[in-house]
Amino acid sequence: MPNWEVSSVVAVIPPVHPRKLAKVPFVEMSEGKLQGVVSSGSDIERVYVSAIAADGHGFSCSTNNNRPCGGLSTWPCKHLHTLVDEAVLQYGAERVARFLRIEPADTLRTGDDIMGRLDGSVVKGGSATVFSRFLRHLAYLELAPCEEPIAELHWFPSTHSEGR
Amino acid sequence: MLAAQVKQLLDTEPEGAVEALEIVDGLDDALVHGLGRIGEAQASALAALATALAATPLRDRVSEAVDKVRAGSLGDEHLAALAGGRAALLGAVHDAQLARLDAALGRSRAGWAAEVSDVDGRLPGGGPEGQGGGRSLDNLLAGCRSWLTELAITGWAGTGQDQISASGNVIHAAYAAPRLRRLAVLLDGLAAELRAASPIATMSRLPARRWADLWSRGVLLAHSAGGPGFSAVEVSGRLLILGVDLHEHETAVQLQAHGVLEEPGGAKRLVRMSISAGKTNTVIGASIWRLFSGYPMMLNGLAKHRVLELSGMPLLPSGDLVWRDELAAAAEPADPFATARVLLGAAVAPAVPPLERHPVRIAEPVLVEGYTVHNGVSIDLGGNAIDLDLLRLPGCGPLTAAAVEASSACLGLMRWDAGRWLLQPLAVQATVKKKPVTVHNGEWALGLRVGGSAGGASIGHPDPKVAKASSGKDDTVAVLRERAGRLLRK
């Protein structure tokens, strides 16, 4: 194996797995939270913004208009379950568990395994930030294509995602 | 590429290349620790950088920058000098390695003679500036420089979450200015890696060369981007595609096709066509082709191996066609392997723009035949071994490591990284279940096929479920566009 330290091209970010996006168009592990956006099952105009903090596992869920999710009690709602399930599909259970500081991370297999190990309670707020991150995420698809070469992308090879 | 050519390539080591890279390593190590807190080892590494550049026009600026680092009073312009010095060393390594490859292949290459064009000579593709020009462009560049300066002062090992996130707004704004696209794409890629690697202080090993590469290119672009580009000439003729190379990070993807352009006078030159698009990290695998649906001629050329007749297509002095799909027309099919056999030897390669000279930019099309594959990781051609660049097998096409392992002929790109040559396959001819098959990277450009194609010699996606997942209601691009349409413009 070549030396990582002196290679210009190494895979720093682990590959993510393809998944269907209809239920959860966006999920990320960022800013200390597993957070994302869950499409409403009943209203096509509505989405829920759901998050679980890595530190303390405090969880939240509200609509994009900042109304609290009716399904949220002392237990996580179905949106949070769906969010974690899809995060596991995209990033793998071990990476999600490690981010949420659940040990030993490599023994967890499913979203349910992870949900069973959460020990936080409901917290408020934060949905506006996550929703604006989601909109910024979507905006990448609106960028006009560019026909001039971007030489810098030679540092970023397209590489196999797993699951093909 | 013949066995004797591989032998010649591997037998000659350019003089001074190893020493140049050692000096680069010294600066890279200083960037791990942070230029704001260098120790004795880093100070002497920086002194070595100044010494190495003492005979160049960068001498005064680099030695001043090294003094400022020692004094703890460095600014953007000093970092630009260090990044420039590093780029000069890597540029020299690039030139030496590419010359060595050209010599082994007997490939002739045009010299760099391009002048920077007038402001008005800026190529199409930039289009109207999203953010106006002048002042706001300057402010954006200053914002990018200041983020890069902070990173260098802190060092990778000390970089925290807040500092990484601080780049978000300036990168987002840079995307709106077409002239800053390269810079935006680069910094976005760097920031995503730093974020994914956090907490960086606990990493067991750091990609020091890589991050310093990205940082220094960022610094140079943040000083030079937005300036005038190179003027293009219009070319016409038959374009025969050799293959396609895919580049991708979480939020950008680029297809870069390599081909031979036969001009009406009979001249043959190596050209490249690059189209890039924004994406999300959930758009991966075969669904990325959807992002290029506005370029049907290009996709036809890639998926169906059609010759493309060009009329008046802009060509940059770097050998890059600035693709205008309406200036191309699909003609008869041409086998890329036949193109390589017949035309590659006589085609003239383009010069590399000075600021792009870095070993990572070396991607020279070659045809290699009659080799054996060892352990799936290297090829042996007449006793000469070259590693395969399996990291560069894209997820959007049918070419897999297994197909490469079963292959005996390969159309690929010669690359150089970490002290060794690599062969990146773009297409292979292999024997699978005792039958000859040909697999090309670009085969799914017009959509996945399950089973073989009409030609019978290609491979569809082995798993119908995967083929289905990238079409219809499960199409990731379509789902996200629907969400964007409903939520983005409110």
Structural notes for this entry:
The complex is a heterodimer of chains A (164) and B (490). Chain A has one domain (19-139). Chain A has 164 residues and is of the alpha+beta class. Chain A has helices at residues 78-91, 93-99, 111-115, 127-139; strands spanning 26-30, 33-39, 47-53, 59-63. In chain A, strands 1-2-3-4 form a four-stranded antiparallel beta sheet, sandwiched between helices. Chain A has four helices and four strands; from the N terminus they run ββββαααα. The mean pLDDT of chain A is 92. Chain A starts with 25 loop residues before the first strand and ends in a 25-residue tail after the last helix. In chain A, helix 1 packs across helix 2 (93-99). In chain A, 45% of the residues are buried. By secondary structure, chain B is α+β, with helices and mostly antiparallel strands. Chain B has four domains: 1-109, no CATH class; 114-231; 233-346, OB fold (Dihydrolipoamide Acetyltransferase, E2P) (Beta Barrel); 354-474, no CATH class. Chain B is 39% helix and 21% strand. Chain B contains 15 helices and 13 strands. In chain B, a hairpin with a 3-residue loop joins strand 8 and strand 9 (378-381). Chain B is globular and about 65 Å long. Chains A and B meet through helix 4 of A and helix 2, helix 9, helix 10, strand 1 and strand 2 of B.
Question: Helices, strands, pairings?
Answer:
The complex is a heterodimer of chains A (164) and B (490).
Chain A: E1 26-30, E2 33-39, E3 47-53, E4 59-63, H1 78-91, H2 93-99, H3 111-115, H4 127-139
Helix pairs in contact in A: 1-2
Chain B: H1 3-11, H2 17-33, H3 40-52, H4 59-71, H5 76-105, H6 134-154, H7 161-165, H8 168-175, H9 181-197, H10 208-224, E1 233-249, E2 252-262, E3 268-278, H11 296-303, E4 306-315, E5 320-321, E6 328-333, H12 336-343, E7 364-369, E8 372-374, E9 378-381, E10 384-388, H13 401-405, E11 407-417, E12 420-432, E13 435-440, H14 464-469, H15 476-487
Parallel strand pairs in B: 3-5, 10-12
Antiparallel strand pairs in B: 1-2, 1-4, 2-3, 4-6, 7-11, 8-9, 9-10, 11-12, 12-13
